Amino acid sequence: MVRNRSHGGLVASVPAARLLAAAIAILLVAACAAPGTVSSPSSTATTTPASPTGSAAQSSAAAPSASAAAAGPTCGTDPLEINAVFETGFPTVPALADEFHKQFPNVTFKVSQDQFANLMTSTPRLLSSDTPPDLIRLPTLISLVKDDLLKNLDDYATAFGWDKWPAAQLVQNRVSTDGTRGSGSLYAMGLNNSLTGVFYNKKLAQQIGMTEPPRTVADFEALLGKAKSAGLLPIMVWNSAKSGGGLAFPLQQLMAAYGPTQPVNEWIFQNKGASIDTPSNLNAAQHLEQWIKSGYFPKDANAIEYTDANARFGKGEGVFMFNGDWQDGAYDKDQPGNVGFFVFPPAEAGGSLAAMSSPLTFGIAKTAKHADCAAFFFNWVATNDKARDINVKGFGSNPGGPPDLAIPPVAAGSVTNDTLAAGAEVAKANGAMDFIANATGSIFAQGWTPELQKMVGGKQDAAGLLKAVQAEYAKELAAGS
Amino acid sequence: MRIARGELYAGRALLLALMAMTILPFLSVFTTALHPSGTLPNGLDWPADPQWGNFVEAFKVSNMTALLASSVFIVLAVVPVSLVISTMAGFAIGLLRIPGSRLLFLLFVFGLTLPFEGIITPLYYLARSMGILNTRVAIVLPLIGLFMPFAVFWMRAHFVNMPGELSEAARVDGASTWDLFWRIHVPLARAPIASLGILMSIWAWNQFLLALVLVEDPTQRTMAGALGAFQGHYATDIPLLCAGTILILLPTLVLFILFQRHIITALLQGSVKG
Amino acid sequence: MTPGDRTLALRTPRRISLLRGIRRDALVGWLFVLPALSMYALFVLQPLALTVQYSFYRWDGIGPATWIGLSNYATVLSDPDMRETILNAFRLVVFFSLIPVTLGLIVASVIHRVATGRLGAAARTVLFLPQVMPLVAAGIIWGWLLALTGLVNQFLTAIGLGGVTRAWLGDFDTALPAVGLIGIWVLLGFCIVLLLTGMTKVDAALYESARIDGASWFQELKSITIPSLRYEIGVCLTVTIIAALAAFDIVYVSTAGGPGKSTTVPGIQIYYTAFLERQVGLASALAVALTVLVLVIILPLQRLTRGSDR
């Protein structure tokens, strides 16, 4: 009997990587709760995460002592090495580390990078290992807090004054004692705040008579109709299971247009009793269904991956594309000066603006050796001029931090100008939402994506979509994930 | 032999069609790899300006030197050891017919039907408790274990067919079991050992899953493991991606073309002998 | 020497030393087996036992684990999604196994009959190529070929079937067959070469006389080839059925289980359950179920097609 051993791969081969690495900046997976006792995250009691080796999670890391409250801890002057785990595909983060080292030569970074999908499965192991990272990209939050693997950053927040920044920047990184996000102690920091919305091809937009960004959903839908009649593809999108259903972007934007954002955030944060199956969401889903039936999306959407969609949009296929500002650089490169951006309009003229906006979250291991220095790095990224410059040019979005710090300028003609301006508006309107794909560890892969794909294939309708996703959500929460 | 001409041509046409279908995918990837970086080619068109540099670029970007070294290390660590211990086991089960041979044989054969998914998670925790996690050793040791079913099966198939007179004659001369093994039978088994070695080298090279799960540092994994990281890096750049794919295919492809006679005939001989 | 003889030999001092000799031989023999057995037991059998153990718990991989008995198995059997994955696995068997074996027989007999020279040798080599590449690569390459603007559709348009074109891997009706096609591409060569080698062991005189009698290609296949190649066919079926039931790489890389759940096979479901949903216990139960399924199918098959007791 011959057995070819080269098949049978299991984990994140390939596209899982692209899948999440792509939609990343806002894919914070607020995943499962650990079965059994829920250890109070804000307590300093050391609960040992059960593991075969029984590695103890004693806090050997120096907690930010009261004496450091005044100016916040620093990295000192002795040489030290920060153990950092970053995600591939985002060169801005290592660039920030390099700049930090330039400004503080005693600090070197030992960086290891991996794909987001791999990080999703390996982060818990890394955090509970004998050499835990000082700085690590977090693909998920709730479960890591429940297993007591992350350092509580409240003291740093007070010391550095982060609690004086716009609350919206930190709220998604807070986890309360009952295991829900949105309030409670701070366990992660974002290195920027990304924004999603609608990119458009300026030439094609002109062709269909768009002179300014649409003010209402109806205006937008009218434009879609015009594009279709003109023989253009109205919206480019990716919906392959390999990248995760990109249709979730327009869906959520519609939800925000037709209803309040608070319930959606509550659902994502796993608040008790939250449901995604609401009348206003149904309305939103029905609009999406209409768009699909009207042929506004590519015929082969279910087979288009994230990278292909961007490539095709870059080649001029599609008047509009729902995506996030992390794509700014790529779009600028593909079509210099030809790409614009606007926030998805509200239902009524003058209604409040809302959009998915999420930070690229990083955390510090509970037992990290250089927690103080890592916290200082967080602060530096948001407040140091050079760092903010790198941040804006690399990520294309608001570097966060104190609201009175100026945002570094960007080259004229770059779509980043649009996204930054839009970001400011959304922040003012307090309309930031997390991504509906982040509600649980697998709601995207097992809920949104298959149901959205079915809708494209004509096998699912708006009501069924929401019911199915809510059922999957409930199932996962009940099973403790 | 009278075979109608029509049949002759039909048969040959079928073969050529199938061969074309088999090769086409490779060709497509190859021609796409030669297109300028950032373009979106389709199909088989040979680019006006072949970008051979893409291969170099792909090599650099995916840190292939480190991966090559890593893969070579893994192959060197896995294959010789596996060859030795599986030959010994095959010898004992197939030739010596030690008590319990039948049972042992079935035990190893059982391993041939195991889906990988069934053991990967515990393997992780096992590696962690052994303290070898995140080292190449974490790939090497399990891989040796995983190769044992096929390798022992293969070597046993050879030894089972060895005539008994050889051993008897040697025993009469006072040979110990080890002598019997090392001096007489191993030299006779050169062909199956060589084929087995080549096969295991290819499989170790293509090993993807273990590398991914057990080794956190991507540069310590295998070449196939690199494919994933590579796609993460070069999202929109299809030609570069294709170049990377070709590079990853190349070693096993070359190995196969060099040794195809060996591989094919011996592989099937072994499976046929059962 | 039969066991009976051996016991009789126990009586005398000469026989005692013979017994010791035999014992020593057995011991040495076992020492030869020990290294291979240890590695296998440690890194294959032990994890397998652990998987079985995990299947009785609810566990997220990090925190404490809770004993829940057969509850996971109940879920595996009752959850409609999970049942569907098993159905998909069987559907794949048609593509990964039945078609390559059938087509392989046809092609092998064609080569044997009309292309014994260089064409045959070249065909053998070329058709075997897909076996050498990582499955991950095969999935990626075919993913491009099967896209809306890919080679397959270009070819179909060129021969006038433009109306049929679509994104094969994104269409609910064609995704699974498309994945099956990739499997055929990978496995066909293996079957062909295996069967061809088997055919060379068949007495050439049989074929000769059949041809002199004017037997058609099909008659040759039916009366000579298939009966003689029972064992090889068995091997082919076994390997390809295992490939189908345990499929993961190809499916994941080409469709990731979509669209919807139409290509979600047990391997994919196990991955999602273990690593995304963080339900290691449930995933382990599914893995055990998959293993049992494979054995249940393969063992009788082996018995049926075993040429002679080897």
Can you describe what's shown?
- The complex is a heterotrimer of chains A (481), B (274) and C (310).
- With 481 residues, chain A is an alpha/beta fold.
- In chain A, 39% of the residues lie in helices and 11% in strands.
- Chain A contains 18 helices and 13 strands.
- Chain A has helices spanning 15-23, 92-103, 116-127, 142-146, 154-160, 167-171, 202-207, 217-229, 248-258, 262-268, 279-293, 306-314, 328-334, 371-383, 385-395, 415-428, 443-456, 462-478; strands at residues 80-87, 107-114, 135-137, 174-175, 185-186, 189-193, 196-201, 235-236, 320-324, 339-342, 355-356, 359-363, 432-433.
- In chain A, helix 2 links the parallel strand 1 (80-87) and strand 2.
- In chain A, helix 9 crosses helix 11 and helix 17 (443-456) packs antiparallel against helix 18 (462-478).
- Chain B has a domain at 64-224 and 251-273: Orthogonal Bundle (MetI-like fold).
- With 274 residues, chain B is mostly helical.
- Chain C folds into 2 domains: 3-54, no CATH class; 79-305, MetI-like (MetI-like fold, Orthogonal Bundle).
- Chain C contains 14 helices and 2 strands, in the order ααββαααααααααααα.
- Chain C has helices at 3-8, 13-54, 71-78, 80-114, 118-128, 135-145, 151-158, 175-200, 204-212, 217-228, 230-245, 249-254, 266-276, 280-305; strands at 57-58, 66-67.
- In chain C, strand 1 (57-58) and strand 2 (66-67) form a beta hairpin.
- In chain C, helix 3 crosses helix 14, helix 8 (175-200) runs antiparallel to helix 11 (230-245) and helix 11 (230-245) runs antiparallel to helix 14.
- The interface between B and C is large, with 90 and 96 residues.
